[in-house]
Amino acid sequence: MRNCLVAQSGGPTVAINASLAGVIQGAIDSKEFYKVYGSINGVQGLLNSRLMDLTHKVETTPMFIELLKKSPSMYLGSCRYQLPDYKEDDTPYAYIFKKFDEYEIDAFFYIGGNDSMDTVDKLSKYALAIGSDIKIIGIPKTIDNDLCVTDHTPGYGSAAKYIASTLLEIGHDTSIYPINSVTIVEIMGRDAGWLTGAAALARNTYNDAPHLIYLPEVAFNKDEFIEDVKAAMDKYNNVVVAVSEGIKDADGNYISATNAVEDTFGHSQLSGTGKCLEYIIKENIQVKVRSVEINILQRSAAHMSSITDIGEAFRLGRHAVKCAIEGKTGIMVTSIRKNNEPYSIDMGETPVENVAGLVKHVPREWINERGNNVTQEFIDYAYPLILGEPVVKYQRGIPDYLDISHLFPNKFDN
């Protein structure tokens, strides 16, 4: 028997550790691997020789797998490292595959979002070019839910649950005074509005908030926005607006991006959309207005996670191991929805090149004609993903998660 290696990359989610747990458990149960190694801080852990023995963790830490499934963020840490084209510079590739040989790695699992699938694609093509039989497999995660082919991504359901719960509570908060007010809630989503659309799940028999929803898939029109808010104020004392950080005007310019910077993958780092809309209302409508930015809060809110999300993330991790044992490589494992009622999915896979560098948008027909709300089709799609609540262990009144001190400077011990 040889070994396998797993790493995490990109932004944290509530469910990404459940996928990690699925890989570990699947590898151990398969009896096809002697050890499961984890790379600290993504592919950079390989480049910096920071690997840990996860099999040993399972053997020495009581309930390690169960604790890992319910701990948020990324137990192995993350990175934002972009591999160059190996045809132009194969130096990091040669070093990574040298480490694969050193640790006798047969399969490498990379859990992450779009940029991580780019890494899986590049490593897979390099392996093919040099004749390596190491299996390279991507496991999806992202709260943005913008990976193509798969029905949805682990992390989205829990983040959507957090957003919906928060919007419901904002609806309660803003309703107590008999005066007019507008509350703008800015929600993550640079290119796709899946997370912002989930705000609609806050609505119930007595709560209509959010009253307006704006996604990046529809061009934002300032004049129509002012009209929308005024119309909502005729019906409600307190208007709540959910808006994606990545909304753009008809020319494709980000509403908030007057001073946007880019990350290592060339993505605009956005903020201030809510504040921008706040100023628009202040200048055009005489009403009390405030803006709230829900930035990173939903990414690691395990106290409000979805058991559906956690369970599916774990299943995808196990399915990735199964695919590797079957000899598959250069793929991303996927969720395939079978039914909404009763909700069910199958596990599948797709060539990772069908995912890397692409974005899955909210279908235009799932957004109303005016572009200020989502339709029932969106709600029917998202609702099953937020269901169920895992039992979270508490200690001294706050959640008790796995120790991650190995991620702190000078604390790593392999």
Automatic annotation (TrEMBL):
InterPro entries the UniProt entry points to: ATP_PFK, PFKA, Phosphofructokinase_dom, PKF_sf, PPi-PFK
Q: Where is this site: Important for catalytic activity?
A: K141
- Ligand binding (diphosphate): G11
Residues engaged in binding substrate: T142, I143, D144, M188, G189, R190, E245
What are its cofactors?
Mg(2+)
Instruction: Tell me the active site.
Output: D144 (proton acceptor)
Enzyme Commission number(s) from the entry: 2.7.1.90
Catalysed reaction(s) here are: beta-D-fructose 6-phosphate + diphosphate = beta-D-fructose 1,6-bisphosphate + phosphate + H(+)
Looking at the record, the residues that make up the Phosphofructokinase domain are 4-323
Pfam families associated with the record: PFK
Record bears the keyword Magnesium: yes
Residues reported to bind Mg(2+): N114
- Pathway in which this enzyme or protein is active: Carbohydrate degradation; glycolysis; D-glyceraldehyde 3-phosphate and glycerone phosphate from D-glucose: step 3/4
Site (Important for catalytic activity and substrate specificity) residue list: D115
Q: How is its activity regulated?
A: Non-allosteric.
Q: Where in the cell is it found?
A: Cytoplasm
Q: Which UniProt keywords apply?
A: Cytoplasm, Glycolysis, Kinase, Magnesium, Metal-binding, Transferase
NCBIfam families registered for this protein in UniProt: PRK14072.1 (NF010675)
Oligomer status and interactors: Homodimer.
Task: State what this protein does.
Answer: Catalyzes the phosphorylation of D-fructose 6-phosphate, the first committing step of glycolysis. Uses inorganic phosphate (PPi) as phosphoryl donor instead of ATP like common ATP-dependent phosphofructokinases (ATP-PFKs), which renders the reaction reversible, and can thus function both in glycolysis and gluconeogenesis. Consistently, PPi-PFK can replace the enzymes of both the forward (ATP-PFK) and reverse (fructose-bisphosphatase (FBPase)) reactions.
In the record, the note on similarity to other proteins reads:
Belongs to the phosphofructokinase type A (PFKA) family. PPi-dependent PFK group II subfamily. Clade 'B2' sub-subfamily.
User: What is the recorded name of this protein?
Assistant: Pyrophosphate--fructose 6-phosphate 1-phosphotransferase
Gene label: pfp
